[in-house]
Amino acid sequence: MIKKKYFAHSMEGKPVEEWHLLEDHLPGVAGLAKSFADEFGSGEWACLAGF
User: Are 43 and 50 in contact (CB under 8 A)?
Assistant: First the structure.
């Protein structure tokens, strides 16, 4: 079975190999959201929303 690739960001003029894969992007977004929301006790909720 062929695994499809999904991209969070594409960059005009750059080869596909340099684009940001969604599977790499989402954990980063979730972690960043958690770090901001930890300050008011909602880090886990923000982490879930980031995915």
Answer: no
- The low-confidence residues of the chain, meaning pLDDT below 50, are none
The crossing angle, in degrees rounded to 10, of helices 22-37 and 43-50 is: 160
Non-local CB neighbours of 33 within 8 Å, separated by 6+ positions? 46, 47, 49, 50
Q: How far is CA 44 from CA 5, 17, 22, 33, 51, in A?
A: 27, 32, 20, 9, 11
Q: How far apart are CA 30 and CA 10, in angstroms?
A: 20
Query: What pLDDT is recorded for position 36?
Result: 96
